[in-house]
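for the writeup, i need someone to sanity check this before i put it in the appendix. the sequnce is what the collaborator sent (i think, or maybe the updated version? ugh). structure was predicted straight from it, no edits. if anything looks off just tell me and ill rerun, i have time this weekend
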Amino acid sequence: MTPDPRRLTSTDAQRLIMPTDPWLSCEDCFELTDRFAEELLAHPDTTHLPEMLVHLHACAACAEEAESLIVLLAADVGADPAAALDRLRG
């Protein structure tokens, strides 16, 4: 049986009601994704871009882009992306 596409999952519902401050648009997010991914790989426990985490927790499309970039950057430098991905998915 296929799920009813009109029903929200609990994850979707949570994304609709989560706080969005500090606010960041998808366009702004796209411009900062490279810097954010590099920073997150180097220092997964801290970030100087908290607005990125807020946006990425609420926006599945931007989060997917960031995850892909983190995996690619990690492969380029021979690093393990697990800690950065865990922080991103928080």
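The helical segments are 10-17, 26-42, 50-58, 60-77, 82-89. DSSP finds five helices and no strands in the chain.
thx in advance!!
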